[in-house]
Each structure stands twice: as C-alpha cells, then as structure tokens.
Amino acid sequence: MADRYFPNAMPDFVPEASVEDAVVAERAKDSLSNLLHLPHAALSEKLKKSALDLKDTVVRETRALSGKRLQDYTLYTGALGTAYLVFKAFQVTKNESDLKLCSEIIRACDAASHDSGRVTFICGHAGVCALGAVVAKHSGDERLLDHYLTRFKEIQLPRELPNELLYGRAGFLWAGSFLNKHIGKETISAARMRAVVDDVIKHGRRLAKGGKCPLMYEWHGKKYWGAAHGLAGIMYVLMGVPLKPDEVEDVKGTLCYMIKNQFPSGNYPSSEGSETDRLVHWCHGAPGVALTLVKAAEVFGSQEFLQAAVDAADVVWNRGLLKRVGICHGISGNAYVFLSLCRLTGNAKYLYRAKAFACFLQDRALRLISEGKMHGGDRPYSLFEGIGGMACLFMDMTEPSEARFPAYEL
C-alpha cells in the first residue's frame, strides 16, 4: 500500500465570498464537499459527535484487551493514550464520568509502569505521573495529586539514556514542562530541569563537534532529524525551557542548519545524510519540523522561521493526505500543522486546510479502512497510531484556537 492517498485531493482555500457559487452544484453530490463547507458551528457539532463515538469505541476495545494487568501502559500505543483521549472528552463535554474513568485508567497505568525503566511522557512512567497529577488536580484529589508528583520526582534518569523525545531526556523534560504549565510554576524545580538541559546540550555539542550544525544527536546509531527521535523534537523541548544565551544561539543555529539542508521539494530528511524524500509524517519529515518551526517563530519572533514553517506546511498540504489515520504518521497528526499555523498567524487558509483533512477523515476514513484502502494502524485503537488520534483531532477542531498536537505542543 502506498504511503500517500491522493495528492492535491482537496480544493485549496478561496475566500468565503467566492466559495458559495463555486460549490453549490457540488454540495448535493459530494458528501466531503458538503461537510467541508458547513458553517463552523454545525461542523464542530458533527465532529464532536463522531469524536465521542470513537472515544467510546476506543475505551471499549482497549479496556477489553487490557486484562488484569496492562501489557502496554504508554501514551503512544497503550492505555495512557486512552486516558488522554478520555480526559480530552471531559475537557470538551465536562462530563464527570469521563474524569472518573480517566483516573481509573491512569491508576492501572501507574501499577503497570511501577518498575518501568522508561522515563518519558509519551513512552514512559513520567507520562503516567504527569497526566495523573493533572487529572487529580481537576478532580480535586489532593492526596492523589501528591502521590503522582512524588512518584514523578523520584524518577531517576539512567546515564545511558538517549536524548530524543519518545524514550530520552527530551521526553522527560517535556513531562516536567507539562506539569509546570498545568500544576504550577516550579512544580518541577528549575534546578531539576536545568540538570537535564545541561546533559542534553552537552551531548549535542559533543556529537556536533567539528560539524556545521551546532547540536547533533544519535538514536540507535542514526542522526535523526524528526520530532520523535531527532533534532526537531529535541529543539522543540529546549525552546520551552530557560536557556543560556549561548544555548539559544545553538538552538537557532541547529534550526537554520535544518532549513538550509532541506530537500529541494521543501520536505525534510528523516536523518542526517538521507537522500530519501518520501516521509511526510510528524515522526519523520515536514510535519514535525513545521510544528517546531512554528514554535521557533513564536519564541524568537523570527520571520525566517515563520516563512520556513509556512513552506513546510505547504509540503504537508500537497503530500500529507496519507493512507493512515494516526497522529504519529497519518492524516490526523498532519492536520495539527495547519491548526498551529492558524493559531500563530490568524490566517483563515490554515483553518480551512485543517478542516479539509478532518473532514476527509470524518467522511471516508472508517469506510476506507474497512475496504482495506487505508491503514488503520498496527494498534488500531491507540492514540498515536489509530483512531484514538483521529478522535482527538475531531475534539480539537471544536475549539481550533485551543488545539495542541498531543504530547508535543504545550
């Protein structure tokens, strides 16, 4: 099965005044066009209903598979991803039963991850503690809040830990930033965060020594560039913590190096030296880099980074309608690029593009999966690979200005 679905499958943005005449005839015969041009309130309600139906399916299927002890507690493909989705549903509907269910799932994740050596938000015990603490705060359960914060502060980082987001130091730092945003400043002390930042910077400079890029990292022997395992993800996290002036320059220089060495198409290599211009995913390629560049434009106020983000988003629009539904390497994750740029620029074109990807999923994804024309994900109900991510996107589309790529944008 080819990775991409239909290049240029969506009509591009045109001002609302000229849309009406152009699409009237199409509305009656094209369900996707009809859906895409609904008023925002009506579309939001339709997407919310689909999201809640999907959420119920995810809960039913993932809890049935879990048994007495969770085999996969992670946010990426496991039960914590279900908890995250249920918490998102609570934020949208304020249904207290969702908050209670979310807390129950996190308790099971806590038990399953107790002896885990993994320390990140997406794939480790830190994510269980961090999300658990935030949910406990919303529940008004001070004892449980203290339990999760204590457990988080007891986490020790192995010396041989990599630096990337999914399994490494950047993933632990992101969890700390998540707690400091949602629980309160200095929940995780500046000293604790600083010690980890020092290690990330030290490792990056050491591997980059003698090269043209100020910071460089390896994971499993490859110098990855993407959000999941490489430069884009690590730079994103570093931009969210206090840095020394020379460290700021290293982050800027690393991003400039990436921009300078992108493919002629505008897409980004999956790793240093790669000549394969194929992947347009959050994990590898333009989508994850675009989200990082949006963050850079916001943090540094740089027109260069904003233009690079816009260019990367164009790649996502033209090549990012994939044959997969998920957050990590699918249409759902790619749609967040447009939501992020819309939030930063206020340009309605990007909201339209996000709607186009979401409407494609709402109108066709489940049917195409059932027909074998789309890949539902190796873990088809998970947050990062399956329909859990699609449900999350649909919920975020109800309040686009508040949308954040799960476990990446803060």
From TrEMBL:
SMART domains in the record: LANC_like
Give the residues the record marks as binding Zn(2+): 283, 328-329
GO CC aspect terms: plasma membrane
* GO biological process annotation, one example: carbohydrate metabolic process
Q: Which UniProt keywords apply?
A: Metal-binding, Zinc
Membrane-spanning parts: none
UniProt GO MF annotations: metal ion binding
Pfam families xref list: LANC_like
Query: What family does this chain come from, according to its entry?
Result: Belongs to the LanC-like protein family.
Protein name per the record: LanC-like protein GCR2 isoform X1
Name the gene that codes for it. LOC115754772
